[in-house]
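Sequence in, structure out.
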Amino acid sequence: MLANFRITSALGAALIASAMVNVLVMTGPLYLLNVYDKVFASGAIETLLALSLIAACAYGALLRAEDLRIRILHSAPPIGGRLAALPSAPQLLDLPFLPLFLGVLWLIHPAIALTALGLGLFDFLFAWRRPLAPTRQAAVMRGLHQIGQSAVIGVGAALALQGTLSMGALFAAALLAGKLYAPLEALAAVLRGPDAAQPFAGNRLICEGYAPGPHPP
């Protein structure tokens, strides 16, 4: 009973910290959006200074939230220790918040959201079904990320030419779309392990420190 409570508490605290991280990580895209669409349009240096100050505070809070999440993962042994030992643990904790990014992309434009979702699913399937040597895998995934970002920019540029999307929204969408890849690739890495034939058991695999390859004794 106590062990289950500690598991629930550790995961709950880590998820709360992850929620803070995933909200604050939108600072960059929102800053870019407002600079392009408001500062450049108005030429108001005061607006730029105010936005920069807000962004600086938000980035500071983001760093604190990231540090808090890692400390939570390390501070609740054995569950926290095992979860922290998994290299992709923070990315796995970001999985529940992918709908948040897709929702923001949908608000920017549905075509952008659908493009990002399709590319993210392709990235996930490739990482899951086509395991490569680590160095080659990293190089291929970086290439897929660049292709995905270019595709989002291309779709956004077409919408901008039609007058349905601003330049600030275009670049903000490109940054937001890039946030989809790491959590999906982390999930693919878990599913690609020795027990990949078994259905993904969500937090159970995370809590048990499941990772591809042999476990330390």
